[in-house]
Amino acid sequence: MSPNPTKPLETTIAGDNEERIKRFLAIASHDLQSPLRHIAMYAELLLDDLEETLDGEQLQSLKMILEKAQAAQRLTKALMSLAGGAPQVTLEKVDLKAVAEQIWSELIEEAGARDATLAGQGLPSIRTDPALFGLVLRQLISNALTYRSASPLHVAIAAEQEGANWFIRISDNGTGIDPAYRERIFEPFWKLPKAGAAPGAGLGLTTAQELLKALGGDISLEHSDANGSRFTIRLPAG
After folding, report:
1. pLDDT tens, 46-96?
2. What pairing do the DSSP bridges indicate for beta strands 218-225 and 154-162?
3. Does one domain contain both 182 and 119?
4. In this structure, how many other beta carbons lie within 10 angstroms of the beta carbon of residue 187?
5. Are the C-beta atoms of 212 and 219 separated by less than 8 Å?
6. Rg of the chain taking only CA atoms, in angstroms
7. How far is the CA of 128 from the CAs of 21, 71, 235, in angstroms?
8. Last residue of a domain, one of 83, 106, 129
């Protein structure tokens, strides 16, 4: 018997999945707040106590720790608000090229993919929430790194304005997505099969989709074959 006989089963399942996603985001974001707060606090204390005694590289590293902890705090607060049904969106001018290069540098360092390349010349500044949009872009680049082919990874980012919207396209030369799975990649708690891939919650693209909805946009898989994939992000240009 259906949980609600007046609703189609698909609608009920979608609603249940949405609630599970919100609970997951709320719990994960809440649990991260305390350690992030302590990291930021201790970094500030160390800066106050040791700033005069550190060399330039050490000082820069400590400031980077503080900056990253504060950025993560802002992001977890945004995710908590999203899970609560009232997302707090802070719109500001975002240099798309700078954001992409920063995320790329961090992920390449983590993955050790020294032969990977990024193309994104002439990218514009857009008006959006930097924390939420950055999380979306990070997920797409991370996926490209996870599902790369035997060839050196190449990711290209392009953006163009069409009417009242920006269309940001992220292409890669990875393994592509099997046609059998293309309808499922945005499903919550589903992960694209890959031998040896690290286990995860299967919420990356689902969360990206929800974040873009909060920003008034959306995401779609525009193209995928054996030569790679291309995702398209739509965001309001206003």
Report:
1. 888 888 888 888 888 888 888 888 777 777 777 776 666 666 788 999 999
2. unpaired
3. yes
4. 15
5. yes
6. 20
7. 23, 16, 8
8. 83
- Quote the tokens at residue 67: 């900056």
How many other CB atoms are there within 10 angstroms of residue 117's CB atom?
13
In the block, tokens 């920003």 appear at: 215
Mean pLDDT, range 174-195, rounded to an integer: 83
CB atoms within 10 A of CB 71: 15
The number of CA neighbours under 13 Å toward the Cβ of 225 is 2
The verdict on 105 and 77 lying in the same domain is: no
Taking a C-beta distance cutoff of 8 angstroms, is the pair 60, 47 a contact?
Answer: no
What average pLDDT does the chain have? 84
Report the share of the chain in percent with pLDDT over 70: 82
Tell me the per-residue pLDDT of 194-220, one tens digit each, with 9 for 90 and over: 655 555 555 688 888 988 998 999 999
83, 104, 138 — which closes off a domain?
83
**169 pLDDT higher than 60:** yes
Instruction: Kindly state the tokens that stand for 218.
Output: 């959306």
In this structure, the answer to whether residues 153 and 120 fall within a common structural domain is yes
Range of the domain at 68: 9-83
